[in-house]
Design a protein that fits this description.
Elements: H1 3-9, H2 14-43, H3 47-62, E1 66-71, H4 74-89, E2 99-102, H5 107-116, H6 124-130, E3 136-141, H7 147-158, E4 162-168, H8 174-177, E5 180-184, H9 189-219
Parallel strand pairs: 1-2, 1-3, 3-4, 4-5
Length: 220
């Protein structure tokens, strides 16, 4: 008898198969639950706040203003990803381009300030070099309590910049001080970060797809 068939028919192997089936079912249940909760999380975001953010980005681009984006950890990755999308996808081969930078991307600058001064100043000190009244400061924080992004927004407010926050949970200390707060009111950090990236894609792909298609129709 074929050895693999014998093993499948061996009663002693059935508990192992049952355990494997249960494990697969557990994985499937988790994935389905995560996906369901993610849909709930993104559905809870105020669409009007995203529309306003799109308009602020358009105004900043058309007025040749700078946009600065910052965050920590996963939010730092989101900031860099978002800026990449805007610098290339929403700017390439366009008559008007975005002047946008991620304050998370200069590792020497971040480590110099962290080592010599303090981590809480790593974003605000860069803004002091580059930001001017009328520019846009975007701060991403799942908890809303990261001191370095709070300081960046405080500086932006004080110097005449527009300030936009992407927050989670109750918005922390960041949400109330930002002029516009896009909040994901869920306690789960992973789904907060997922939703933040989706919001960033909504903003970026508006300029890549919706605005671009409108421009093409108008030129026909």
């Amino acid at each position: 008898m074929n050895s693999s068939i014998a093993r499948r028919n061996d009663p002693s192997s059935m508990p192992a198969r049952a355990a494997g089936d249960a494990d697969m079912e557990k994985k499937a249940d988790f994935i389905e639950h995560y996906a369901h909760e993610l849909v709930q999380a993104i559905s809870s975001v105020d669409v009007r706040s995203i529309e306003q953010a799109v308009e602020w980005f358009r105004e900043a681009r058309d007025a040749d203003r700078h946009i600065f984006v910052c965050g920590n950890g996963g939010s730092a990755s989101t900031a860099s990803h978002f800026v990449c999308d805007i610098v290339k996808g929403a700017s390439y081969d366009r008559a008007t381009r975005f002047r946008i930078m991620a304050l998370t991307d200069s590792l020497p600058t971040l480590t110099a300030y962290s080592n010599d001064v303090g981590y809480e100043c790593v974003f605000v000190e860069q803004l002091k070099n580059f930001a001017r009244a009328g520019d846009l400061v975007v701060a991403i924080s799942g908890s809303g309590n990261s001191r370095n992004v709070i300081r960046a927004v405080e500086y932006g407010n004080a110097t005449g910049c527009r300030t936009l926050a992407l927050t989670g949970r109750d918005g922390g200390r960041l949400g109330p001080i930002a002029q516009l707060n896009i909040n994901v009111p869920t306690p789960h950090m992973g789904r907060i970060e997922d939703a933040h990236m989706i919001v960033c894609h909504m903003i970026g792909y508006y300029f890549m797809e919706a605005e671009q298609s409108s421009t093409q129709v108008a030129s026909v």
